[in-house]
Amino acid sequence: MKHYSREEAGVPLKVKDSVRQSFNHDIKIRLSTMFSAEGIPQLWLNYFQALYTCKQEGKMDSWHPPPSIDKGTHYLLDALREKGLKGFKELWEAYGERAKCRQWPLVALRILSTCPALMPDFLLGTDSAPYPPFSMVSDCMLYLHLFHKEVDPKARRAALLQCMDPDRWPVVLLSQRGVRLYAMYAGQQNAYRAMEIMRSRDSQISASTLLAFMNVCTQARDVNKALECLRAIALMEDRQGLSMNSEAVLRHCCKLLELDEVVEEKGVRNFKILPQVLKLGVTPCLEMMNVVLSNAFATGDPHLGLDMLNYMKEQGMKFSSYTYVILLTDAVARQDRDRVDALLHEINLHPELKDNQFIASKVFHSHYIFGAKNAFRSDNPGRHLMDLLDVYCRYYDPTPLKDLGIIPERFNTIDIPKEAQPGKVILMIMMAAYLRCNPRHVTTMRLYKRFRELIAQRHPVIAPLAQLPQIYNEFIISFRPYGADLNDCVSIVEDMVRAEPFEIDGTTIYPAKPNDYTWNTLMSVFVSQRDVEGVASVREIMQQSGIKFTEVTWATIINGTVRNQDIPATVAALKEMDEAGVAPDSFTVKAFRLAHDPERLQAAIEALDKETEKLMEEEMKIKERETDELLDQGLRRLALATKESY
Q: Which residue intervals correspond to the PPR repeats (predicted)?
C-alpha cells in the first residue's frame, strides 16, 4: 500500500496493474478542466477559506470580497438572476476559456457570500468544458451543506449529481470531502457506482471517506459491502490518525452491529457480524456491547443475553443508562418481575441513573405491565392506579393529568418538577391505566369527552395524543364489560373516521384513523356483549374497506360464535379462515373450550374436513379434464401446423 501524509490525498483502495490507464484518465480529466496547468488558483484558496471562517465564526461583517471583482462579474451574476439557468448557460458557453477561468471563482465567491440560493443554478450553468475543478465545486456544495440548508434540497441534489459525477473525478489529489458529500446525498445506487469507479481506477481514498461509504452500505443493510469498507480501513498503512478503535470507527461499527443476527454453524450458535468486526482489530467498547446485548436478547434466548452481560462484567465495563434500558426491556418482555425488581435496586444505587428519563420511562412501563394493565383481575384495582401515579409523579409534571381530570386540582404537587413534561407514550399509558382501573361506562365517557375538549382547544400536551390510535383503542376496550352503551363505543370509531388534520405551533397533527387493531377491538366488544348483528356489521365494514383478516380477527369471530353456541357459524368461520390461508392460533383453540357441546363441534369440524376433501377431489378431476382438453387442443394445433408446413 502506498503512503500519503495528507488527509485529502488518501490512499489507494486497491493497487492493480492498470496504473497506466488510471494515469492517462487522470491527465484526460485535468485537461478538460479549468486551471489544468497552474492548478487551483491561490485567489480561490485564500478567499474561500476566509469566507468559510467568517461564516463559521458568525463574523460575516469581516468578510471582504476580492478586489478583482469587476463589471464582468456583476454582469454574469445579474444574468443568472434575470435570465435564469437556460439564459445564463447560453451566455456562459459563449465565453472563451480565459474569461471563464477568470470569472468563475469571482462569481462563485460573490454568490456564496450574498445569494447562496443561486449556487445550484450557477454550477449547472457552468457545467461544460472546460469544467470547474472537482475540488472547487466540492467547496461550494460543502458550504451550502454546512451553512445554507435552506437552499432548495432538490436543486442542490441535482447540482451534486450532475456537476460532481464520479466519471469526472480525478484519480490523485481527489477532494475527499467532496467524495464524502457525494456519498452522503447521491443515494445508494449512485454511491455504489462511485465506489466501483474508484476501485476500477485505483483512486485515492482516505479512511474517513471509506467510513462514509460504509455508512451508505449499512443504511442499505448491505452487510458484506460495509465489512469490505471496514477491511479496507484495517489494511491501510496510514489512516490519518483514525485507528480501528477511534470514536468514528466504533460508532460506525455500532450501526453495523444493529444488523447482526445469530446463526448456527455445526451446532454452535454465534453472531454473524460481530466475529468479523473483532478480527479486524476492533476492541469492543461499552456502546458496541450494548448493541450486542440488545441483539442477544432480541433472539429470544435469555441465556445468550446473560452470556453477553457476564462478558461485559468480566471486562469491567460500567453499565450506562442504555444498558439498563436494554435489561429492563428484556425483563418486562419476559414478565420477569423478580428480575425487574433486582434491576431497580441496582439503579437506585446510582443517583445519576435513578433520574434518567429513558430509565424512568421503562420503570413506568414495568409498573403498568405488572399492575394496572391487568387490573380487571385484581380485588383492588385502585391500588394499581395509585402505584402507577406515584411513579409518574416522581418524574413528570402532573398538570396534564389534572387537565384530563384523572387527578383532582387539589392533588399535592409539592417537590414535583414542573419542567418534566410527559411524552405521548407516558400519557397514553397513564390514560389506559385509569380506564382499566375504573371499568365503568360513565368514567370512560367523562374522560373521552374531556380528551376531545382538550384536542379542540389545541392543548399543547394533550392534543398531539390524537395521533395515537392506541388511545382510542383503549377507550373502545373499556366498553367490554356487560351493560355498556355500545352507541357511545361506535361513536368513538366514527370520531376517528371523521377527524381532520390541525395545527399546533406550526406543526400539523394528523389524527389517527381506525387501524386493524381498532376494528378487531370493536368486534371483540360486540362479541363480549353477545351482539351477533354488531359482529356481522363490523365484519362487513372490514371487508368493504379491504382490511385483511388476521389471526386476531378470526380468533375474535370464532370466540363469538362459540360463545353463542352457534356451531354452524363456527364451522363456517373455520372454513373461511382455512380458505384465507390463516392457521388457528392458541387464542382460537382456547375459544373452543367455551363450547357446551364439544362433541358436536368436533363432528361438525370432521364433516367440514370430509367436505373439503370431496371438493378437492372434484377440483382435481376438473383440472385433469382441463389438462386433457388442453393437451388435445395442442396436439390438434401441432398436427395442423405440421400439415400446413408440407
A: 515-549, 550-584
